Amino acid sequence: MIFRFWFESIVGMFCIICILVFGQAGATSFALFALLPIILRIRKITKPDERESQLFYKAGNLSLALAIIAIVLISYFSSVIVNGHIIGDNWMFLSITSILMFHGVAGLIVFYKE
User: For 1, 19, 45, 86, which has the most beta carbons within 10 A of its beta carbon?
Assistant: First the structure.
């Protein structure tokens, strides 16, 4: 489960950077999330036990709060131009990748705290 959260955090941050640098073309980096089931199968990670499932749902609640903050910030800075691309034009991709990144960060916080 920890590996999953690390993967979501790193790939989410990479996607956000790609979208900010390359604009709409950077959204193709979102396809990296499709590798998660393949990597989990290769690493032979089993299904989570009851404790891990409870912590996973707890991380989901925390990530929702962080995602709302991220979406408000994206809305607030929607007119800012980064590398020739307006943030408001890519709000959907930035919102989705920030939700997944913050889910990974929240999961790491919850798992290391508990």
Answer: 19
